[in-house]
Amino acid sequence: MPDATITTLCDAVVTHLSSQSLSMSFTASRTYLPDFEREELTGAQVSVFPQGTQTAIASRDSQQFIYTLNVVVRVPVSPAADPDISTHLYFSEQVADALALKSLADCSYSSIQNEQAFDLEALADRNEFLSIITVTYLTIK
């Protein structure tokens, strides 16, 4: 049974990220339930999950499909009153840079967004660096 295009795209993002040599060792995976437990976080993790699909008319006989994925970067942080997360921010930036301008799974890269550099609550309450990068891809069918 074939996968949905957005699932194939998520898998392509995971494969692409896994092949990158970044500043931290990490594991990348596709998930459908972005429910993360801090106790299970022992190293850097990158999780990719589908956020949504939009369609628009491209021409009389074709549609443009817009696929939005969330790429979640999680790294444990040593407890401190004011933890230094500069290396974590750099790693998150590297993940975003690895995806920028990269077409995958027959879909063209459109945009990338990291509206909030990191989640303050996760850092303060769980000693966890958490950043959500939203990537958008396009295809015409």
Task: Summarize this structure briefly.
The chain has helices at 5-18, 86-99, 120-126, and strands spanning 26-30, 44-59, 62-76, 108-113, 128-140. It is an alpha+beta fold and 141 residues long.
Low-confidence stretches: none
Instruction: Bin the strand percentage.
Output: 35-45%
Largest sheet: 5 strands, mixed
Give the strand tally.
5
From N to C, what is the helix and strand string?
Answer: HEEEHEHE
What structural class is derived from the secondary structure elements? alpha+beta
The geometry reads as elongated
Question: pLDDT average, as an integer?
Answer: 93
Description of the molecule:
This protein has 141 residues and is an alpha+beta fold. It has helices spanning 5-18, 86-99, 120-126; strands spanning 26-30, 44-59, 62-76, 108-113, 128-140. A five-stranded mixed sheet has the order 1-2-3-5-4, sandwiched between helices. A hairpin with a 2-residue loop joins strand 2 (44-59) and strand 3. The longest helix has 14 residues, at 5-18. The chain is elongated, with a radius of gyration of 16 Å. The chain starts with a helix and ends with a strand. The model has no long low-confidence stretch (mean pLDDT 93).
Describe the structure using short key phrases.
single chain; 141 residues; alpha+beta; 5-stranded mixed beta sheet; 3 helices; elongated
Topology at a glance:
Layout: H1 5-18, E1 26-30, E2 44-59, E3 62-76, H2 86-99, E4 108-113, H3 120-126, E5 128-140
Parallel strand pairs: 1-2
Antiparallel strand pairs: 2-3, 3-5, 4-5
